[in-house]
Amino acid sequence: MITKNFMIASLFTSLLIISVLTAGSIQYMRPIIETSVWLKEHADNGKILCTRAPVIVLSELPVHKFVFFEKRDVSEDYFMNYIKQNEISYVVSHRGYFSDLCKNLTVVFKTEGGLYVVYKT
Question: N or C, where is the chain less crowded by C-beta within 10 Å?
Answer without folding.
Answer: N
